[in-house]
């Protein structure tokens, strides 16, 4: 499967690529240069044919997930994302929606509306005015990409 980068735009302005600032924090950030962009492998979600699990490339168990308590987009370790109920993601009309197991609420990839210098990514209800929606575009990664994850490969 091809690896993907996720390119972001907020309020019509470039917001770079999704990245992992460091694997220790376990959070995803925007406003990254392409050289530092996180690489994802898309794993089909069986409960929603238009959604995928976003596995961090070159890892065996790291996925892009959502903290339901804080709405922060974070790394979660899972052997099987279906069984362990990792958040799947669906892109529709440039919006990236969180597909949370067992929940009907819809959360959309966002960033803080009040902290201009904050690059932390959230997935919040679309009507939440504390956050600005992010438009998302998937980009194929050239085969010579050098981004590495420091997680040991299992």
What this model shows, in words?
With 154 residues, the chain is mostly beta strands. It is built from no helices and twelve strands. The strands form two sheets. Strands 1, 2, 3, 4, 5, 8, 9, 10, 11 and 12 form a ten-stranded antiparallel beta sheet that branches. A two-stranded antiparallel ribbon has the order 6-7. The two termini are 19 Å apart. Mean pLDDT is 87; it is low at 144-154.
Rounded average pLDDT: 87
Q: Distance between termini?
A: 19 Å
What's the shape? globular
Helix-strand string = EEEEEEEEEEEE
Number of DSSP helical runs: 0
Going by helix content, strand content and strand pairing, the class is: mainly beta
Oligomeric state of shown chains: single chain
What is the CA-based Rg, rounded?
A: 14 Å
Helix content: under 10%
Total count of strands:
12
Largest sheet: 10 strands, antiparallel
- Indicate the proportion of strand residues: over 45%
Are there runs of 5+ residues with pLDDT below 50, and where? 144-154
């Amino acid at each position: 499967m091809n690896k993907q980068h996720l390119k972001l735009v907020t309020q019509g302005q470039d917001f770079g690529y999704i990245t992992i600032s460091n694997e220790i924090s376990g959070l995803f950030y925007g406003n990254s240069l392409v050289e530092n962009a996180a690489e994802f492998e898309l794993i089909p979600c069986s409960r929603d044919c238009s959604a995928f699990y976003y596995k961090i490339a070159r890892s065996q168990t790291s996925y892009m997930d959502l903290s339901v308590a804080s709405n922060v987009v974070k790394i979660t370790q899972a052997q099987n994302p279906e069984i362990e109920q990792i958040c799947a993601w669906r892109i529709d009309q440039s919006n990236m929606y969180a597909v949370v197991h067992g929940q009907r609420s819809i959360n959309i990839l966002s960033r803080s509306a009040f902290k201009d210098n904050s690059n932390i990514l959230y997935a919040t209800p679309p009507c939440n005015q504390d956050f600005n929606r992010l438009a998302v575009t998937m980009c194929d990664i050239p085969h010579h990409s050098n981004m590495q994850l420091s997680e040991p490969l299992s």
